[in-house]
Amino acid sequence: xxxxxxxxxxxDKFVANNEDGEFERQTxxxxxxxxxxxxxxxxxxxxxxxxxxxxxxxxxxxMTRALKGxxxxxxxxxxxxxRIDDGWEFSEDLPDPLYGEEFLRDIYLRADDxxxxxxxxxxxxxxxxxxxxNNESREIMRMLDEAFAPLAEHDVDLNPDGYEEEVDRxxxxxYEPVNNGVYRAGFxxxxxxxxxxxxxxxxxxxxxxxxxxxxRFLAGDVLTEADVAMFATLIRFDxxxxxTPITLPKVCDNVTDPLREKWKRIRDYExxxxxxxxxxxxxxxxxxxxxxxxxxxxGNGASPPGFGPYDLEEVDLQLGQPHxxxxxxxxxxx
Length: 334
Ligand SMILES: N[C@@H](CCC(=O)N[C@@H](CS)C(=O)NCC(=O)O)C(=O)O
Hints:
Layout: E1 3-5, E2 8-10, E3 47-51, H1 56-68, E4 74-78, H2 104-111, E5 123-126, E6 131-134, H3 137-145, H4 164-179, H5 181-187, H6 191-211, H7 225-237, H8 244-251, H9 270-280, H10 291-299
Parallel strand pairs: 3-4
Antiparallel strand pairs: 1-2, 3-5, 5-6
Helix pairs in contact: 1-3, 1-7, 4-5, 4-6, 4-7, 5-6, 7-9
Bound molecules: glutathione.
GO molecular function: glutathione transferase activity
Organism: Haloferax sulfurifontis
Protein name: Glutathione-dependent reductase
C-alpha cells in the first residue's frame, strides 16, 4: 500500500500484515478535538469534511452529519471512489473545493509537510488554521454528535444521557469482529488468520441478529452512534465483503475456504436485514449511501483483487421495503 514517508509519496514502505498473516490497521495521526482544544473552537462554516463515499469509516461521519442536520455548519466534499497509485484523488467531477488540489495527500502535506503515515479518509479540516483537526472516524463521529451540537439543525442525540457507557461499549464490541472483521477476513494471508476472522465475524452477526429480535437498535429502543457504525458495515456487506471469500483462494494460494458455507448475506438474516432497512429509511441516511461508489471502489484494484464487486442490477437489496421494526419501539431518537 502507498503512503507518505517524511513528506514523500512512497509505494514501497507499508506492510499491513504482521508475521502471523493478520491484517493490522494502522492508528491515525491527527487527534485534536473541536471544542475542547482552544485552537479549534466550535464555529459554523469553519470546518470541512473530506470523505470518500465508498469508505465505511468515512460513512460514519457523513451519516452523523446528516442525522444531526449539520450540512450548513460543516461543509463536505468527496474524493473519487477508486484509489489509484497516487492514493485518493480529486477530479473535475469531484474537485477539492478548498485549494483545488489534485490528491488528498496534498491536503495532508498542507497540514504537515513532513507527514509520515497513510493518507486516509475521513479528514476533518480546519479552514481557518489550515490544518487537519482529526482523521479518526470514531472521534469525528463523536465530535459531530456532541461538540457540534449547538450548530445542529436537528434535535438528535446519538449518545444520549444514560446511554454513554453502553454506546462506547457497543462501538468497541462490534469493531474487531464486524467493522474491522470484514477486512481481517478479506486481507488475511494465512489460513489461521482467515479462519479466526471469519468465525468471529459470523458469530458476531449471529449474535446481533438474535439481539435485534426483540429490540429495535443495538443499545435498545433508540438509535445511537453504535448503529451508525454497524450500518456502515452492513450496507456494504452483500455487495462487497460477501464476495471476498469466493475469490480469496484464487488470490492467496495459501488460503483455502472451508468456511464458505458459514458465509451468509445480510439478506439471509431476518433481523439484521430489517434493521439495515430501518436505518436506511431514517431521514437523511439514504443520500449518504452511494452504492455505485462502493462497488466501484472495491472492484477496481483499489483493494486486493479478492473484493467484489457484485453487479448492482443483480443484487437489489430492496432497501425501501417495509421493515416493521417500529413495532419494537415507536421512536428513533430520545
Ligand atoms: N482508523 C481510520 C481508518 C480509516 C481508513 O482506513 N480509511 C481507508 C478507506 S476505507 C483509507 O483511506 N485507506 C487508505 C490507506 O490506507 O492508504 C478511521 O476509522 O478513520
